[in-house]
């Protein structure tokens, strides 16, 4: 079983479901590091629904952009940590005008050194037409760089297509 | 030879050509289930051109969203049926405000049970930046779900890149 | 080592870095055929920066859309030629209102016959939602056709995901 697994792919390609399936191979309990923000009642309801579906072996952590702090806090007591997802984390970092390269560096340093497994979900957003919007172009550049950096420290990388994993970096 | 084959990929990645090549391995005649709608003279001309190119061993069926009915009607007398493509079918179902989950269920039940092979062409539309348009976002979510559902019942799934098939689910 | 290698993938998927790494396996000097146009000071600075980073074993050629002429001129004296990238070349051809099918044919004929290796970088732009803009739709169709044509004459094709190569056509 991989210590660091990156699951990437397009929207609705089955990344989260596959991530949860892979997590189930580790000893419970499992930590779920949610990077989505509950901005309205609909979003809050959706997040709660997902939480209920995952069941009691999952412990949800919602700490906004403080991802590495949460990873440090969950080193002990969990069989695996699932980060869902890197792209929303990036999106919030950009909103906060954070230093993306520095944050990526801190995350990758942490991943290199941790002994407790981590599964990270990413998103491929750079396979369409160049966006007309400058912010969207910047975002897809940053998302591509982040995925490359995490893939470089991962022990296993898969690319999801239609709910099925294609091996990018074998475990 | 796969009983149910899903061919997915981006625009102009060679999906239809590969689908026709794979169909040629089955005994003729072959049924072509077109989901594109001839909305104008240009589109009509383009559809006729493709039909002529495919040749007399292909029998074209154009029944709009009545895909499963056409699949049932072509159970006998054809070596294989080619559905080109799932994404246009979905697009028309959404226009008709149909129950997509229910329609997907009926299609997948049919595919699980049929004895006459079916090749289905899908489209990957979720690998770009999140669309600003709400309908486009809903469409890419539905397309992703549809591809996952069909891939789950398929015996073989390929992802086309630059005219070449990459194996997602081996036959 | 492949005579003709096509490296395709999304934005910031590590195509250029991988291309330069693969080029390093051939005897120097290496020819870098840049298709990007220095339209402003920022772009010029960026191009110079890349040039400096690549180092003295790389000889940069910037000849706009005259790609095949430059390939012919670099047949002798170079271990390998790197074309970075096909999509910018296409973009400039479309601006010049060139005959894309004819230009593609000339390039592919050249690639079929040359003895000096060529590495070509392409872009996958057809995996997002259908663009609302007609020119964008035409561009993604042409980019898909160009990638298919080059992939057909290539000895090896890879698809980059998160900085890692997936084999599309094995060498």
From TrEMBL, chains A, B, C:
Reaction catalysis annotation: adenosylcob(III)inamide + ATP = adenosylcob(III)inamide phosphate + ADP + H(+); adenosylcob(III)inamide phosphate + GTP + H(+) = adenosylcob(III)inamide-GDP + diphosphate; adenosylcob(III)inamide + GTP = adenosylcob(III)inamide phosphate + GDP + H(+)
The residues that the entry says bind GTP are 9-16, 34-36, 62, 84
Q: Cross-referenced SUPFAM superfamilies, in alphabetical order?
A: P-loop containing nucleoside triphosphate hydrolases
Q: Which GO terms describe its biological process?
A: cobalamin biosynthetic process
Q: Which Gene3D superfamilies match?
A: P-loop containing nucleotide triphosphate hydrolases
Q: Which residues form the active site?
A: 50
Q: Write down the InterPro entries for this protein, in alphabetical order.
A: CobU/CobP, P-loop_NTPase
Which Pfam family, just one, is annotated for this protein? CobU
Q: In which pathway does it act?
A: Cofactor biosynthesis; adenosylcobalamin biosynthesis; adenosylcobalamin from cob(II)yrinate a,c-diamide: step 5/7; Cofactor biosynthesis; adenosylcobalamin biosynthesis; adenosylcobalamin from cob(II)yrinate a,c-diamide: step 6/7
User: Which GO molecular function annotations are given, in alphabetical order?
Assistant: adenosylcobinamide kinase activity; ATP binding; cobinamide phosphate guanylyltransferase activity; GTP binding
Q: What is its EC number?
A: 2.7.1.156, 2.7.7.62
Alphabetically sorted, this entry's keywords are: ATP-binding, Cobalamin biosynthesis, GTP-binding, Kinase, Nucleotide-binding, Nucleotidyltransferase, Transferase
Into which family does the record put it?
Belongs to the CobU/CobP family.
- Relate the protein's function as given in its record: Catalyzes ATP-dependent phosphorylation of adenosylcobinamide and addition of GMP to adenosylcobinamide phosphate.
What this protein is called in its record is Bifunctional adenosylcobalamin biosynthesis protein
Q: Which organism is it from?
A: Eilatimonas milleporae
